[in-house]
Amino acid sequence: MSLPKIEVTIRAANNPGVIKAHADVRLLLPNGELGLIGFALIKQPGKKTFVGFPQNRGRNKYFPVVQATGEIEEEMTKAILRAFEKEEEKRVW
Predict the structure, then answer these.
(1) pTM of the predicted model as reported, rounded to 2 decimal places
(2) If you average pLDDT over every residue of the chain, what do you get?
């Protein structure tokens, strides 16, 4: 099975700290599309930016809303980071 086309929209964080922005992903499938909202772009001092998958806060910890493994996880992460880098170049933040 081939991977779906991946489209990413980047939104600046309201109060940027280590979370610099949020990303929404659209997976374009042959018979429709799937929207995944709320990926976090996290940049800690001295480290590379990484993607945090959407989570909901519980009483004492966070619970994943979206999980992915394998090639689809890699491709979504790469697409999100590429889109974020393009936005950084525009100096939207």
Answers:
(1) 0.90
(2) 93
